[in-house]
Fold each of these.
Amino acid sequence: MTDTGVYPVLLAVDEDPAALARIDAELTRRYGTDYRVIAKTSPFGALAELETLRESGEPVALVLAADSVCA
């Protein structure tokens, strides 16, 4: 948690819903007490989320994107 009381975000992006569910579950299990985990199946949805986070001043610690999302 930051000094402002906001948890930094871990954003995961994968177009495969099953893979994303596993990633989301693992990140939440391991880091959920210190970070807010957000999972998106669309690169466009992830970009919109990042824009919203930036506008609200929320910190983003990490973006994880599957190879298929980056291609």
Amino acid sequence: MFLLAVPVLCEQFLSYLVTMTDTWLSGRISREATMAIGLASYVSWLASMLFALVGTGTTALVSRYWGAGEFDEANRVANRSATLAAAMGIAFYGIIYSAAPFLVNLLDLHGETAAIGVRYLRLDGIGHIFYAVTLVLAAALRGSGNMRTPMIVLGVVNVLNMAVSAGLVFGFEAKLGEAAPLVLLPAIGVDGIVIGTVVARVAGCLLMVGLYARGVTGLRLIRRELVVRGPIVRRILAIGMPAALDGALMWGAQFLFLMIVAHLGEGAQRDSIFAAHIVGIRVEAITYLPAVAWGAAAATLVGQSLGAGKPQRAIYSGHTAARQCGMLGGVMTLVFLFGAGPIYRFMHHDPTVAAEGIGALRLLALAQIPLTLEIVYVASLRGAGDTRTPMFINVLGMTAVRLPLAWLFGIHLEGGLIGAWIGMVADLIFRAALVVWRYARGRWIHTVV
């Protein structure tokens, strides 16, 4: 479990550095830039959830076939999945390009902030076409037990993203003697952040496709298999549909939650609260690093164990991942409790943003262990092909707990960001309890994929 999780953890850490770098760069520009970056991050999150329609089914099927020794079928799944991912990426770009002004208006953004937000979303959408293929091919490799190659490819993507984005925000010049400096990278502000992201995602897709063209871990692109038809495609969609629907519903609820945050306070205070929320959510993403890593490892071992006819080993895999990852969640609880002040002062130059966010981040510290458990056990269930139960639990937590409590304490009782985050903390604890209960019952081992 540990050996499978560590490469994914390294990959997630680099991904986290990208989000932190983007947020930090926007914090050097303005509150408006941070707000626009925050909106784009929610849309990117929606994209990754929708791509799970293919990725979740891919991992579940490849791991089952791999555990049963049916490697040709596993390779067929990888090829069909790549084609599906490309189609989804193109469709998503078309939707986001048209919907960008509407999303900006929903958050009541105006003037420069609205213009930045629309432009950012439309440019970012180009990168999602290529990122969809990269993520799904990485999911196939993880299903085969190869965690190292996705780590290297996505690591290259993330490092390139940070380098190009920072260079385009601040600019880069070379001094050649007494002559005027040679501009190697122009300083273009907030647009530089998204252009860096697009460049990196295109490069990552080309690298991943190149590896598959040569063959990696027994998986290879085969031209005749790059089609969207047949029973394998239907099985991928049947497994992934609940996960994608779960993602879409979760994103819709999260966007409603973001709308609540966007209406906390008025004027300059409102902007500070919104920016503080974006910074806090980006910072808290560090807890997702071990959770997603151990969740990916658990999904692989659960699927392969069930494919090999070893259900008890599958059950033990999920519990092992939860124990290992839960300890790291405890560490992050202490970091957020005692480091909230320094974290906010480093992330944003505006002191009003820090003033709104420090107390809220300390509150959020209480949900870090439940958050890790929920992510790990959900990934374990999905690795077995049980994608419907997590969907119902997630929707219930968001609609019956988070949104009502966030509105009550944040807007009605005027509790500000802390009030809204009371709903978020209660939701995370509620969902963790239900997912742990579902996993402990063990009925998911009979899931047919």
